[in-house]
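Checked the freezer inventory, then went back to the computational side. Two predictions to log before the end of the day. The first one is the construct we discussed on Monday; recording sequence and tokens without edits.
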Amino acid sequence: MNIEYIHEPTDLQCGQAVLAMLLGTTAEYICEYLGNDRETDLREMKRVLAEHGVGFSPERRQAQTVSDLPRCALLSLETPRCWHWSLYADGVFYDPEHGVLSDFPQSARKFYWEIVPETLKAVRG
């Protein structure tokens, strides 16, 4: 899976940056698509994925360590500052705030939705 890292344009656009990385587009496109340049909620995240043909698990699961994660996952993390969206793919964390990491950014609770990697190929071309 070829993910191009995108740093969040503002402190409130982690969701847009994660969606842009998954779809192979820009955070600006996602902001325009949603009509929202601030925090994204789960409903918005799922809507963008579904409307762009990306398959994902309907249920949220909890992770303790990286070994709990599937090949690709949308992450919802309780960081010291706030709830935060991040992305995991093929053993790498693409975090819109903290950069490209080998483990979770500091977070008390970690939840994920599995992304079906094969559906990304159709979206990204």
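The second is the one RB wanted added to the comparison set:
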Amino acid sequence: MGIILHIKQFKVISRNRASTQSVLRGVSDGGKCWITLTATENIPISHCFLCTGENCPHIIYLQPQQPQKFCLRLGLAPDLSDSLRGAIEKALQTLNVGSTAVIEVKLSEHSSCQVTAHLDGFSAPQAFYPTPVNDEEEEKNQPTLRKNAATGDNVEATSSHGNGTNIAWRTSTPRLWFAQASVLKARGSSLFNSAPRGDAHNLSPIIAAFACYSRALQLVTLIGAALDLSLRAEEVEKEKEECEVTFGLVGGDYIDLDGDAQYSVDPERVEVDVEAMEKVHFSLLSNMALCQLKAGCPAYAVKLCTQALEIAPQDNTLLAASQEVDEEEEEGGRGIDLRDVEKVLYRRASAYLLMEEFEAGIEDANRLLQLNPTNQAGEKVLHELQVSLRAHNATMARMMKKAFQ
């Protein structure tokens, strides 16, 4: 039996939801769960957060009919969605504290087992502002309409009563998303670096890394769209609130399925701003482009690189910034820097080379060398593009000559 259990099929065959818990405060993506698992068969479960496949030294097994306690944070391992962990995560999102779900896992055509998951406790983001409970409060939170004197049309006016922001939002939510995106990015990089060098056919680590980067990008995009709402809510709340609240009573020792890879950014302390968001957004697009290059999909790599360059500062701004900071500051900067843009230009030029769009690639390589004339990788790809373009032009010339003979 392999280290990572890939499930052919699973389904929740029974569920016992605790009647005293509100269904509105269940487990959600990003929440941490403390659970008790009981299996009918001896089956493996992924333990180490940053270890995958048969190289994982921390593999553990669920012992038959022996309850075992685990904790994990949902959504931090999208590459394991077809494993036992993925099946458990899906089941947990249907439960409240004190509830259980029985998961039937089909291991092969002729064998299956059952895993009972009991939710002992979980953490969840702070609740949004509560839904109004009466007509008077509902009316306070509704926008009002007034006549536009110039056009005579009805336009929305801001109410001076009730919630000043007129939104249901928590300032802590973007901080949680940012921390989760940081962990997913770190996991993706670890998976990518675990890929065997020189083995172009083993794409499993690359695909797994791309899944992590993609999920992180979704969270970053959400933060970017909601950042203005968060800042407005922060002005109203004035005091910084805790990111999460915990439900249920958790006792005893729990095996952490996330291993040593906790949040690389503390959500209680992180300050999410536009500069930090753009840095992570740019980095994720760049890494996803590299995955597409490794997978032999240069057109998608070009698309991702182009998206990244659209949010980068102008070249003259990058050059000026690189002259103002020393090496230590540049390495740990919060914003997009010159080195980041160099990588993306190199990757897009390499993708253009594979697509035989040599002139576009030469343009990127020249731009790269204008930013950093000492970039050896840029010099190499420029030479390859120029040689390929000359060979292509010579071939076309011979074909044209034959056509008119």
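For RB: The radius of gyration is 26 Å. The first strand starts at residue 9 and ends at 16. Let me know if you want it refolded.
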